[in-house]
Amino acid sequence: MYRIGQIAKLADVTPDTIRYYEKQQMMDHEVRTEGGFRLYTEKDLQRLRFIRHARQLGFTLDSIRELLSIRIDPEHHTCQESKSIVQARLSEVQARIEELQTMQRSLQRLNDACCGTAHSSIYCSILETLEQGVRSETKGC
Q1: More confident residue, 136 or 79
Q2: Contacts (Cβ under 8 Å, ≥6 apart) of 52
Q3: What secondary structure, in 3-state letters, does 36-50 show?
Q4: Whole-prediction pTM value?
């Protein structure tokens, strides 16, 4: 059995994170010491690591709850349920990558257009381009 500080350290989270997951009903503590300290089992540690890894992959708390539900009661669920949750997250990540690649290309064009010398920024191509982008966005409004 682990106290909250011990299990937090083993799972590489803070005790506050564990309390938060408890409030979100993703974890619970069934056992307390006579002094009222929470006690956690190896199974709790496994669940906490599951949650932490899922969070690192960017899953929402709702998605993690669903995955935990599938994990806890595998006889009433299919792999397809887990896979559909992962596919949804993968689609989100792919969309974000495309957004970031578009941003990268735009920043690269801004960078390439600037001479980068120490002359006055009165005619700075970066500032002018950004200003024109603002003007073209507001013209459409």
Answers
A1: 79
A2: 11, 12, 13
A3: CCEEECHHHHHHHHH
A4: 0.75
